[in-house]
Design brief:
Elements (H helix, E strand, L loop, with lengths): L3 H50 L11 H10 L12 H4 L2 H14 L8 E6 L5 E5 L3 H5 L6 E7 L13 E7 L2 H8 L1 H60 L2 H4 L2 H33 L6 E5 H11 L1 H6 L3 E6 L5 E5 H17 L6 E9 L2 E8 L6 H6 L21 H11 L3 E7 L3 E9 L6
Parallel strand pairs: 6-8
Antiparallel strand pairs: 1-2, 1-4, 3-4, 5-7, 8-9, 9-11, 10-11
Helix pairs in contact: 1-4, 1-6, 1-7, 7-9, 10-12, 12-14
Length: 445
């Protein structure tokens, strides 16, 4: 797993980078293709416009018959001395713009932004007509595209004459308009890329979590094996001792070894009960018998349970019951177990001499219990994970403190089941403080 996991990460990363690179290349090619397609459609549309506004009337229809005959005999029309009327003589800017918009709509270019002008090449490119912003956009040839289409008369008499008028069509912010036409395609590409990245992130996080869970479970099984192996070995030795005839004849020794078996059996039962409670907590099947109780009584009973161990540690215990109202709606067994777990941790992770302070107080409608020790303290990482299931704080390179890593998870679950909150404050080598808040019982007798 240690070798496979980094390989999977590398392969997924390379795949993700490759997909993004391919999308970028595809989009770049698509952008160029769209630019070419747009210009091609614009040119076709402008050609249609040119044909629509070109002069179509025959020369004979604009002159009386006798004058037309004279023109034909003199050949003046063929030499260009007579020219068709200009665009400006036949259309105004609004009429031309309306025709252009109509043709653009027919070519599916109704959203295209543009400016245009009609120029006459006869007198050094004279601007006959132009839109308001034409001069401004026509000067920027980098960001804007300019298309020039000649306007040629279509009547037979005018054929062969050079075109003197042209449509100058400017597309402002050309690239931006192409981007706009690809808006939804770009959005979809971005969305799917984000989805791929999110899937990659979730996959890695899930793998890391599974790896962590696997390590925690392995650690839990090792701890559980050790916790059961020790009492079983002690019971086995005690049973072997009871088979000795000298021991059988000595009542004091019989009682001594009998007590050992009883205590070790009780110890194993406690371990089994802890694991069963953890399973019930996970399933949400733990039942509570909630009744109004004096919380100070729970604290005192918990301290009494550890009286012998505290004496062996030569612990200094300071108790300050400052809360005026200690009535809480609680399950007696579970609330005592909560305090038991915190006191037990204070003893396990204590230094040579333990100083343990317990203080209660009321803040608003909350009953507060503060339990402070001067033990080895916790790192920031441990503080974040202290209430995780199976997590056990390291006290060096190895776990030198016994336990399953279920106690603090149990504590938090029970406190939350009582509609309370628990938090921890700690510094390495300075000790830890556990603060429990439980709502005060409204009705009690």
């Amino acid at each position: 797993m240690k070798r496979v996991f980094p390989l999977i990460i590398v392969l997924i990363t390379l795949s993700l980078v490759g997909i993004i690179a391919l999308q970028f290349s595809w989009f770049k090619n698509m952008l160029e293709l769209k630019k070419e397609q747009l210009l091609e459609r614009v040119d076709k549309a402008l050609s249609d416009v040119s044909r629509q506004i070109a002069y179509k009337e025959r020369l004979s229809s604009t002159y009386p018959k006798d004058e037309f005959d004279k023109l034909l005999r003199s050949g003046m029309s063929m030499f260009g001395l007579y020219k068709p009327p200009s665009i400006v003589q036949r259309f105004n800017i609004s009429e031309l713009n309306e025709k252009i918009q109509k043709v653009l709509q027919e070519h599916d270019l109704k959203n295209l932004k543009y400016e245009f002008a009609i120029i006459n090449n006869t007198h050094l490119m004279t601007f006959e007509l132009q839109t308001n912003a034409f001069n401004k956009v026509s000067n920027d040839t980098i960001n804007n595209k300019i298309r020039v289409i000649p306007i040629e008369p279509v009547a037979n008499e005018w054929e062969g004459l050079a075109s003197t008028e042209q449509i100058v069509f400017v597309i402002p912010n050309f690239t931006r308009q192409v981007y706009r036409s690809l808006f939804w395609m770009i959005c979809m590409a971005i969305v799917f890329t984000i989805i791929i990245i999110a899937a990659f992130f979730l996959t890695v996080r899930t793998m890391l979590r599974q790896k962590k869970i696997s390590e925690i479970k392995t650690d839990f099984i090792n701890n559980m094996t050790h916790e059961f192996k020790t009492p079983l070995a002690t019971i086995s030795l005690a049973i072997d001792a009871l088979r000795n005839e000298k021991v059988l004849q000595n009542k004091e020794q019989l009682q001594y070894f009998g007590n050992i078996i009883k205590e070790e059996n009780k110890r194993m039962n406690n371990h089994v009960e802890t694991i069963l409670q953890a399973a019930l907590l996970e399933k949400g099947e733990l039942e509570f018998n909630l009744k109004p109780h004096h919380a100070h009584v729970f604290i005192q009973r918990a301290l009494d349970n550890f009286d012998l161990q505290l004496q062996q540690k030569k612990a200094i215990v300071n108790v300050h019951f400052s809360a005026k109202n200690d009535w809480i709606e609680a399950d007696e067994v579970h609330m005592i177990n909560v305090i038991n777990n915190i006191i037990d941790n204070a003893i396990k992770y204590s230094k040579k001499q333990l100083t343990f302070n317990i203080e209660t107080k009321n803040i608003g409608k909350q009953f507060i219990i503060c339990m402070e020790d001067n033990g080895i303290g916790m790192s920031r990482e441990t503080i974040k994970r202290i209430f995780e299931k199976f997590y056990r704080a390291h006290t060096g390179n190895v776990h030198n403190v016994k336990g399953f890593g279920l106690g603090m998870n149990y504590v938090k679950t029970i406190v939350q089941a009582h509609k309370g909150h628990i938090k921890v404050e700690s510094l390495l080598d300075k000790g830890s403080t556990f603060i429990i808040e439980i709502p005060i019982a409204i009705n009690h007798t």
